Amino acid sequence: MSTGDNPDTTGRIKSALRVIPNFPKPGIMFQDITTLLLDPKAFKDTIDLFVERYKHQHISVIAGIEARGFIFGPPIALAIGAKFVPLRKPKKLPGEVISEKYILEYGSDCLEMHVGAVESGDRALIVDDLIATGGTLCAAMNLLERAGAEVVECACVIEVPELKGRERLRSHGKPLYVLVESQFEPSS
Amino acid sequence: MAATNSDHIQTDAAVKDVRISRISSSIRVIPDFPKPGIMFQDITTMLLDPVAFKDTIDLFVERYREKNISVVAGVEARGFIFGPPIALALGAKFVPIRKPNKLPGEVISEEYSLEYGTDIMEMHVGAVQKGERVLVIDDLIATGGTLVAAIKLLERVGADVVECACVIELADLKGRDRLGDKPLFVLVSSTC
User: Fold this and answer.
1) By the CB < 8 Å criterion, does A58 face chain B?
2) Active-site hit among B78, B122, B163, B176
3) Which residues of chain B have pLDDT under 70?
4) Are B157 and B134 in contact (CB under 8 A)?
5) Smallest Cα–Cα separation from A37: which of B66, B73, B100?
6) What is the pTM assigned to this prediction?
7) ipTM of predicted assembly, 2 dp
C-alpha cells in the first residue's frame, strides 16, 4: 500500500494539519504540519505508522531534509536503531561535504551531506514532511547514491499529487510512501 | 570533557557516567568553523551512533518525565532533532521556534543580539497557552542569545519556562549567566 493503512488514524493526522493560503506567495496553499505537532497522539501515530512500515526492512540510515525532515526523521531513526543523517542547505554542515544542485521554479538550490555519514551498503530511507515536485527528494537520493547507499524508499507525511512528485521519483526507480494527500487548489 | 548538571538526577550515577562519556566522545570538534578561531561542536557524529543518540534523549526524558511538561520548544534547526523525540516520550506538544519568514501562520517575533547586528526568532500564535510548562531545547548553548529570545517569546504568551536543556554548553561563553533565573541543564560542558 502506498498510503497509511488505518483510515481513522490517518484521518486524525490529516485533520491535525492546517492549510495556510497564499504562503509563501499568492496561489500556494501551504500545508502546515506545526498543528500536527501540537497533537501528541496524532504526532505519535504519524511516527508509529512509519516505524511499523520500516522496522523489518533493515534500514540502516534515515536521511532527513532540513528543516522539517529533522522533526520526523530522528524519532523514526531512534525507534528502528538507525543512524540519522541531516541533509542541509549550503554552509550549515561544519565538516567536509558533498553537494547536489537542484532546480527550483526560479533558479537553483543545493543540498549537502557530510562525507563519511553514509557508507557503501547502507540501506537508506529519506524523510521529509511533504513532497511537492520531488526536486528536493531527488537531490537527496542523488547524494545518498553517490555515497554508495541504496535508497529503499522516500517517506513523507503529505503528498501534493497535482505536482507529480511521485512520478518524478518513479522515473528514478524509487517508491514513495505517504500518509495523506492534500489538495493543491482551493476548493470552489 | 566533563559532564555537569546542577541537580540530582534519579539515575544510577555509574550508569549515567558511562552514557555521558559515550555521548561526549561521539561529538566531533571542527576547528575554524564557521570562522577562524571557533572550535565547532558537531553533533552530527553523535546522530550516527544510535546508542549515543538514544542515551542523549533518555537522559533528558528521565529528568523531565515527572515535571508535568506540556510543551517542548525546539530552536531551529538542530533543536528540531532533539526536541521532538523528547516531546513524544513526554506526551508533550512540540513547538518549533524559527528564523523569520519560515512559519506560515501568524507569528510573534523577538529580536536578539548577535556579535555583529541582530537576528529574529519567531513562534506561531496559538501554539502555546498561558500557564503551560515549557522546556526549551537546543543542541548547544554558546552566548545564550538564542535561548533568551526563545524564553522571551514563550513568556510573552504567558508560559512558564521550567528549564532550558542542551546537549553541550560552551562554558567560557557564559550563556548560563545570561539566562538569569532560568535554570540550564546540559549533558556535556566544554571549555574548548
Assistant:
1) no
2) B78
3) 1-15, 192
4) no
5) B73
6) 0.94
7) 0.95
